[in-house]
Model the fold of this input.
Amino acid sequence: MRLYVSIWNGDYWATRFGKDKINWNHAPFVASFRNFKVDACIWKGQDSECSASTSNLWWEQEAHQTLSSEQAFMLSIVQNNYTDYDYCKDVKRYPTLPAECNHQF
Done:
């Protein structure tokens, strides 16, 4: 299992249309993670405990598939007050939105 991280390249759309300036003097940009723990299954082929037919994985239980009303409200506060860019709302750049944009909380 791997963790991938990316840093936006500073394109016009990713810098709030030029409002945020990137100081390239700080490059290379480095990220580190401390106390990162993953709770996952180990893939061992078709009969793995990760197979779709397995129903005892915590992240597949119904309680972890949706947000409560309070969680959805808190998410909306964060989205409305702290989101600089949402590619799911960028119909100019993505006339056909990616599939994950169809997910409703």
The mean pLDDT is 77. DSSP finds one helix and no strands in the chain. The two ends are 27 Å apart (CA to CA). Helices lie at 69-82.
